[in-house]
Amino acid sequence: MNESDIKHYRRVQLDRDFAALKESKLLPSNPKNGWIAELRTLLLMTTAQLARRIGIAQSVVSNFEKSERGKTITLQSLEKIANALECDVQYVFIPRNEKGLEGELYDRAEKLYEQKEKKLEHHMRLEGQGQSESVEKSVREEIEILKLYKKVWDR
Length: 155
What we know:
By secondary structure, the protein is mostly helical. It has 2 domains: 78 residues, no CATH class; 50 residues, no CATH class. It is 65% helix and 0% strand. The longest helix has 27 residues.
C-alpha cells in the first residue's frame, strides 16, 4: 500500500467518524461566555477557587475567560484550566463539506478538471475539432480528477 492509498483510507475513516459525530448531534454549541466561565459557574466555583487550583492569580483566570471569548487563548492554557475543572480538552475540525474530507478533495479536483476541460474544448472549437462522448472519456476524466488531488489547493 503506497502513501496515497494510506491517506485515502485515513480520509475515509475520518469521514465516517465525522459523519457519526454530526449524526449523533453530540457536539454542543459553544457557550456565549465561553467554556471556562460556563463550567466554572455550573460547578459552583469562583474565579478565586479556580485560580487557587491552578496556582495562579485570580486576575489571570479572568484574563483566561476573556481571551477564550476573544478566541485568543492557547491550548496549553485550556489544558491547565480543564485539568483544574476536572475536565479534558478535546478539539476537532469538522469539515463543512457534507461529503467530508474525501468529498472536499474530490469536489475541488473535479472543479479544477472542469476548468482545464473548458479551456481544451475552447481550443478544439477554434481548431474545428469536435469532442466525442464515450465511456473512455469518462474513465479518462476520473483518472485526471484523481491526479489533480495534489493540486487542488494551489489556487
